[in-house]
Specification:
The protein is built from 8 helices and no strands. The protein is mostly helical and 165 residues long.
């Protein structure tokens, strides 16, 4: 906390479950979706042709499946199986919403959907670059009042002002 104060930064704390959910959403899920996209194309009857026409977007979208070593990704999703399943369910629901929007005849829905996604991404990138998380007030963490290692090991402690020597 002192280092954060010196750097004029705000400490940010999340508990273990929040951390796992955040990693599942931002690391494991994108890697799994990348793998699923690649598997969808690779299992297509026209995979031979798709390989020839696949371009930069496909390469970038599928590159995420190897950003985390496969054995590490496998362990993470197994250890956080329920969180991973929950996030996959949320993504499947979003894909179903997207499908419904696309099925609408007027085309305005898909335009709105894509514009909303573009706006959300730009807002996130801007906030990340500026470390501005929507005006969110981050409270400085309270100082932990616990004995230090020397107190625990050797019984040493700092004398309070006015205490006898």
């Amino acid at each position: 906390i002192n280092l954060a104060s010196i750097l004029k930064a705000a400490p940010f704390f999340i508990d273990l479950h929040e951390h796992d959910a955040a990693l599942t959403s931002t690391e494991e899920l994108p890697a799994l979706l990348s793998a699923a996209l690649l598997q969808t194309a690779a299992h297509s009857a026209s995979w031979k042709e798709l390989q020839r026409v696949a371009g930069r977007n496909f390469a970038q979208a599928t590159s995420l499946c190897n950003t985390i070593p496969l054995n590490v990704l496998e362990k993470r999703v197994i250890l956080n199986r329920q969180k991973t399943l929950d996030k996959l369910d949320q993504f499947i629901a979003e894909l179903q919403d997207l499908r419904q929007v696309l099925a609408e005849e007027d085309g305005q829905g898909i335009s709105d959907y894509l514009n909303d996604a573009d706006h959300a991404r730009r807002s996130w990138i801007r906030a990340r670059e500026q470390s501005d998380w929507g005006g969110e007030e981050l409270r400085p963490a309270e100082r932990i009042k616990s004995p230090g290692i020397l107190t625990n090991l050797l019984g040493f402690r700092r004398k309070k002002p006015g205490e006898d020597k």
